[in-house]
Each structure stands twice: as structure tokens, then as C-alpha cells.
Design goal:
Length: 399
């Protein structure tokens, strides 16, 4: 009789939250209990867990119908929560993804934007789950920065990255009329060097199964999201995650709160109407996280790391000078942060004036002068004075 090889599967304690279980509003009723080996739509066989978020889990799957073609061998499945708010967000993300892909199907910038290849609904124990199918990508930009680059982007590589992001934003803003609203290193993904990277992930999962918690109705896996050392420099990257993106051509003014705390535009904070230029501000302040490895005006207390919108406005004031009266006039939350004469109600311990040049330490000379001039076109109090993505692509710093 042939002996059967049984692999030892590392089991996690049932009393410790694992990955998505750590979300503040986690409920097992809202997350579909994906299992390795499960096949969706008679097409997609789940082979590894790649990640999770507050509204979904993400899985690597074989495309059984196209497995003979190396470039199409795998897909990524984003299995969304089933509660009404998250279902609506998933449907909005799908709708926006389809709009982006069809607005100008032959535009070269689509190469730098991650859109859904397919979608389907799956019935879970407690309702239906929208599932979005994407081309697999490598790690997000922040992971690449800290694991591969030692925490700081080389200036030359940063220029290439910024050109790609501006090219993608120009397409989103002008061709699709879409504002991303959530530009951050976690939502920028690197392309894979080759499908062989994923072949190795599948082999590793088979040889050394991921640790998991086994419960009565589901298994909660640890993600396998480290694809190992780069085999070549990534050829391109893509902006992803459009679940909170909005149409910029809406008739009603856009005033709801958007953007990650660290990268929030001032008009958003004070409750004034915002538009495409909010993405430009967002990208501009994110450049410090890449080039310097730290935030420019994140609004966080150095001792507690607690975020304060007022502190962030004080930091912006230190860099750019006082907010112009017309920016504050009519904004819904101006009174929260400012006196009637336009003075901030508190200084939050922020220096009275900081030169933008003094915050840049990784480049010198003419390169530094050009970089500072470049970001000055993005970081302006008045949204209408910020350069567009197309205008920024012409700036000398990028060339």
C-alpha cells in the first residue's frame, strides 16, 4: 500500500483575532468563508490568500479556463463584504472600473490603472458577496519602498514613478471625470516581473501551508503576500482601489470628507467644495513619504501619533503661510478651526514658519531647486491654483 504524505498545517489559537477579524466592526456574517481549493464560477480555483482589508479579503486563484497561457494563468479575487454599505461600495467600484476601462479603451494610460477583468456574485451562508477579478500584481508601493529600497526612494526612480502616476491621474481626470480621493502607497501596486513569481507562491503554499485558524464555519488564513526578492526591476505600476472614488462631473458640490488623514487637502478639512485638484495635493504631500521616508504635514503628534485636523492646518500654515480668506469663506467647518479674523484657534506647537526647501534633505543643488518648484505647483491653498496632472508632466524636474 502506498503511503500518503500528510503535511503538517500550522494551527492558530481560536482566542486570538486573525487578520480581518481585527477590524473594529468585524462580523463573520459579513465575510465570505473562502477556503483554499474552492472553485468559483467553474473557472477560478483559490490557491493562496494574498491579503485583507476592512471590506474584503483578497486571494490568488488559478484561471482554469486560461491556465495554458502563462500571462493569463492567475487572477486575483477581491471577495467583498455582504452588508449593504459595503455591497454598495463594491458595486460602485465595479461600475467605476467599467467606466474607466471603456472611457477611452485604447488610451496608453490604462496600462497604469488597475481595472476589473471580471466580476460575479457568490452566495454565502449569510448573503451575497460581490467578487471582483483583477490581474495579479506584486506588492504595494510602501512595501517595495521599505523592503527593497531601505525606506527611501532614489530621486531618479521617484521621477519615473511620479510620471506614471500623473499620466494615470490625467486620464482619470480628463477622460473619465473621476477623482480617486485615496492616493496612498497602499493603493499603488507594482507589476509582476513574470508569472513564475506566482508559480513559486503556489508551490510554497503546497509545500508549506499557511497558518490558519479553524472554526466551525470557516478557516481564517494568514496572508502570503511576500513574493520574495525582485528578479528584475518592475516595468510599471498601477493605481488601484476605486471603492471610494467619485465622479467629478456630479451636479452637486462635493464636500464630504475624503483622503487618508496624512494626505488630506486643506479644502477637504475645512468643509469647502473640492474637485480633481484634491488628488493633486494628495500626490504632492505623498512625495515626502517616498523621497524622505516621512510625512510633510500629517497632523500627527510626535509623542502620541494621534491625528488632529487642526494641527495639520497649522503645519500647512507654517509651510504656505495663512489660509486666504476666500478659501475659508463659506466652508462648513471653518469655525471649528479659525477665529472670525482668519487666525487659527491654536498653534498646536507648530513652528511659526518653515521653508519648504528645509524639509527636503535627500537631494541638493539644482535637483532640489527643481523638485521644490515642482511641488510648489501642487501644494497651494487655493485648489484652482494647483497645476493639473497634464501641466505637471511638462515640468523640468521630470525631464
Amino acid at each position: 500500500m502506498r503511503a500518503t504524505l500528510r503535511l503538517s498545517i500550522p494551527l492558530l489559537g481560536s482566542d486570538v483575532p486573525v487578520e480581518e477579524e481585527g477590524a473594529p466592526d468585524y462580523s463573520p456574517r459579513h465575510f465570505y468563508p473562502v477556503r483554499l481549493g474552492e472553485v468559483f464560477q467553474d473557472s477560478y480555483e483559490v490557491v493562496a490568500k494574498l491579503g485583507f482589508g476592512g471590506n474584503s479579503t483578497v486571494w490568488l486563484a488559478r484561471d482554469l479556463l486560461r491556465y495554458r497561457f502563462p500571462q493569463d494563468r492567475y487572477v486575483t479575487l477581491k471577495v467583498c463584504r455582504n452588508d449593504p454599505g459595503h455591497q454598495a461600495a463594491a458595486q460602485r467600484e465595479l461600475s467605476l472600473s467599467q467606466h474607466i476601462a471603456s472611457a477611452n479603451p485604447w488610451h496608453p494610460a490604462l496600462r497604469y490603472i488597475r481595472t476589473a477583468k471580471d466580476s460575479f456574485e457568490v452566495d454565502g451562508p449569510h448573503g451575497r458577496h460581490t467578487t471582483l477579478v483583477y490581474e495579479p500584481m506584486r506588492e504595494p508601493l510602501w512595501l517595495f519602498q521599505y523592503h527593497r529600497l531601505g525606506g527611501v526612494y532614489p530621486a531618479a526612480l521617484l521621477k519615473t514613478t511620479v510620471r506614471i502616476l500623473l499620466y494615470a491621474l490625467d486620464y482619470l481626470h480628463t477622460q473619465c471625470r473621476i477623482i480617486h480621493t485615496d492616493i496612498k502607497p497602499e493603493n499603488i501596486l507594482l507589476a509582476l516581473e513574470s508569472t513564475a513569481v506566482l508559480d513559486d507562491v503556489v508551490r510554497d503554499e503546497a509545500a508549506s501551508p499557511s497558518p490558519r485558524k479553524i472554526l466551525a464555519d470557516r478557516e481564517i488564513y494568514l496572508s502570503r503576500n511576500d513574493f520574495g526578492a525582485l528578479r528584475a526591476l518592475p516595468k510599471f505600476l498601477r493605481i488601484s482601489d476605486f471603492d471610494v472614488a467619485v465622479r467629478g462631473d456630479a451636479k452637486a458640490p462635493l464636500t464630504h470628507v475624503i483622503q487618508p488623514d496624512d494626505f488630506r487637502a486643506p479644502e477637504v478639512t475645512v468643509g469647502a467644495p473640492w474637485s480633481y485638484s484634491a488628488d493633486i495635493w494628495n500626490l504632492g504631500v505623498m512625495l515626502w513619504n517616498l523621497l524622505e521616508g516621512e510625512s510633510l504635514c500629517c497632523g500627527r503628534d510626535e509623542r502620541t501619533d494621534a491625528y488632529s485636523a487642526g494641527r495639520q492646518l497649522a503645519q500647512i500654515t507654517s509651510l504656505l503661510g495663512p489660509a486666504p480668506p476666500d478659501v475659508l469663506a463659506g466652508a462648513m467647518d471653518t469655525h471649528v478651526f479659525y477665529h472670525s479674523d482668519g487666525r487659527l484657534k491654536a498653534d498646536y506647537g507648530v513652528p511659526g514658519r518653515t521653508k519648504l526647501e528645509d524639509t527636503v534633505t535627500c537631494v541638493e543643488g539644482e535637483e532640489k531647486r527643481l523638485f521644490v518648484d515642482f511641488v510648489r505647483q501642487m501644494l497651494k491653498w487655493r485648489p484652482q491654483e494647483r497645476a493639473t496632472a497634464a501641466q505637471l508632466l511638462e515640468h523640468p524636474w521630470l525631464h
